[in-house]
Design brief:
10 helices, globular, Rossmann fold, Arc Repressor Mutant, subunit A, 2 domains, DNA binding, single chain, 6-stranded parallel sheet, alpha/beta, about 220 residues
């Protein structure tokens, strides 16, 4: 990470079946300082290559010629270590967005996004933030609230979080980024990340998307 700019280069994989688009995205990432460790034109190749390339972030299109981008997302999110998936799709349909998120996508961006917006989304996804094209965040939040109305496991079995972990979790549920949480609680960005990672471990969750869902289920976003 550069002390002057705060930029952290990431290892990124690009998955898209259109060669020109795939090459363009890879070029934008490389020019921004990221390391493009792999590219793939179909889902099965992406899953196979990711195991060796070990990207931190995968930029994945939903429409692939073999298995879907949702299935690729499910495989990558369940990997060890898990890959943070930023879906980059032409579709803004509710069903597509929610299926991607349920599969473990960290973010969902439309292909109409500007270059700067895309690069910002990659950086934020790499930091563990949930990133969505404006207008889609409310859709995802609404789905979380609907799911939260369903019966959940007994609170007696819930892991015990520290007061600070609960405080950070509450702000995560409200949609704040790690940087915003750090500023509000007068903590370093790294300390906030550590609290989130500890919370994920205690709750046996895999990513920030699942963490937000858990927090909303517990009503922490209303406090």
């Amino acid at each position: 990470m550069s002390e002057e700019t705060g930029f952290t280069p990431l290892k990124v994989m690009v998955v898209d079946d259109h060669p020109m688009w795939r090459d363009s995205v890879a070029r934008d990432l490389a020019e921004a300082g990221h390391q493009v460790v792999a590219t793939a034109g179909d889902g099965r190749t992406a899953v196979r290559v990711a195991a060796a390339a070990r990207p931190q972030v995968a930029v994945v299109d939903l429409q692939l010629p073999d298995i879907s981008g949702v299935e690729v997302t499910r495989h990558l999110a369940a990997a060890d270590p898990p890959v943070r998936v930023l879906v980059l799709s032409a579709s803004g349909e509710q069903q597509d967005v929610l299926e991607a998120v349920k599969a473990g996508a960290t973010g969902y961006l439309l292909k109409s996004a500007a270059r700067a917006e895309f690069l910002d989304a990659v950086a934020r996804a790499g930091a563990g933030d949930a990133v969505f094209t404006p207008g889609l965040a409310g859709l995802v939040l609404g789905e979380y609230r609907r799911l939260a109305a369903a019966p959940s496991r007994a609170d007696d079995d819930a892991p015990r979080l520290t007061d600070r972990e609960t405080e950070v979790l509450r702000l995560v549920a409200k949609g704040l980024t790690y940087k915003e949480i750090a500023k509000r609680l007068v903590l370093s960005h790294r300390t906030v990340q550590n609290h989130v990672q500890n919370t994920l471990g205690k709750l046996q969750l895999h990513n920030r998307v699942e963490l937000v869902r858990y927090a909303i289920e517990k009503g922490l976003d209303q406090e």
